[in-house]
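In response to reviewer comment 3 from the previous cycle, which asked for concrete evidence that the modeling workflow produces usable outputs, we include below a single protein chain processed end to end. The sequence was submitted unchanged, and the resulting structure tokens are shown without manual editing.
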Amino acid sequence: MPAGAPPRFAGFDRGALQFFHELAVEMNRDWFAANKPRYDAQWVQPMTALLGEVAARLARRYAPIRIGAPSLFRIYRDTRFSRDKTPSKTHIAGRLALHDRLPVDGGCSALYLEFGIDDEYAGVGTYFFDAAQLVRWRKLVAAERTGAPLASIIARLRRAGYRVGGHDDYKRVPRGFAPDHPRAELLRMRGLTCAFPEIPRGLMHEPALVDWLVMHCKATARLVAWLYQRVK
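The workflow returned the following structure tokens.
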């Protein structure tokens, strides 16, 4: 590897999930502090390398929109308003955000990844729209000129096996829109994400995971760009 080159993704260690199993049992900050070098070596470093390689290979597909540097979520949970007071998450999550300027100016992800003892997930999109984004989203969805092409993009992705949808969506179409609107499903959404197919067994331990993710990121890039350019 040339001097100064970013590290290449070689796959997550095959025993890496054991860290999260142990964390789930111990679940205290002292244990985590003592085992943080292990967490960094088995999860933080390879996840950062993985996201970095994917970002580099997606740069041309998204130009002129820039892809942000790999961003990893904190492992510590915010327990202030939760009944669950366990201090740590039993997974690692990271993403590649799209942005025009610094700091990152939106929640639209060209890739979101999560690995842990409960789930493996890879996908793209915006998990929840903020208040201003939600207003823009509904106007765009309702208008035939912008809503119909979006519905077509979503339909094609669903036919190809992607899971496209919202999260904790509203039960009813929002006030001001016809209840029988042809895109009522989209009007009820509070966000829009597109989940990739299940990661093939064992692939997370192989360098080929980069190729698999890039393939799906490119297949879903049109939807992500639509979200970013219009809703942001």
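The chain has six helices and seven strands. We consider this sufficient to address the reviewer's concern, and the full set will be provided in the supplementary archive.
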